[in-house]
Amino acid sequence: MKTQRTQRLIGAILGLLAAACLQAPAAAQQAYPAHPVRFIVPLGPGSGSDTITRLAAKEVATELGQSTFVENKPGGDAILAVQSLLSAPADGYSVLMLSPSSMVINPLINDSLPYDPQRDLRPLATALRSAAVLVTGANSPYKTYADAIAPARKKPRTVSMASYSHHYRIGALMLQQAASVEFNYIPYKTPGQVQTDLMGGQVDLALLDVGGAVPLIASGKGGALAVTGKERHPQLAGVPTLRESGLSDYDLYVWIGFGVAAKTPEPAAKTLEAALLKAMAQPESRNYVTQNAGAEVFTVGSKEFSALIESERKRYQQLAKQVDISGR
Question: What is the pTM of this model?
Fold first, then answer.
């Protein structure tokens, strides 16, 4: 009898232990987030991308009731930042700032890219998007988009075009193609170098982000010929879009968003997505985007964000079949 009772007691204990083990994973998921969440920025401190990430991280901390912190991992066209994310556990405690560079352009210009955006990364939410401005120097003979395009169309490579990133190089190539011209393209490493040579007359045209172009234009040291958005920019209301200037299908935006490793558990990913959307809806975040970054609030969730990335991927893949977008 004692043996039977002992066996029943042992069986009951084992049953309780088994039930506890089954409940443990669910309890762990419900506890998310149980410790601080890291935000990774693929640029150095002080950049606009860094600032908006820090604002988002601060608001996400409030939404989650858990602290957050930001790590800057500049270098390698965002590759170092992506690798930092993917080397960490896919548990929702590491969030990466995403951009066209990491999600769309890198696979097209780097044959040995150590990650696959479609397989390894999961977009969660966007934060903002910004159009570019086609700018010329104050002493330039070109006062309108038509002024600049006419000589470029008449004699290829006589009008120089500058920019400072792969994305704006692609924008310039798209402009060439749409306008049936060929610029003398000059790549730069920083926007400051572009502005210096633009003001000095060493280059004719440049594609600049709105945040950098507005002070140049306001000071009278540069002139805006067109903006690359689908609509006019609020800070440059008198400047037409390229669509208004005759390129009916042209638009170019740089966007910023956030994502996690693809294998992140669904509950954690959904919790982060909701927190990010709320974070970007806060007045401080919106004011920074529109007033300081020269951008527009553009906040969509994972489904729409993924569709945007796929649309741009197909668009740039088609361009890459026709011209060399790598700059090599």
Answer: 0.85
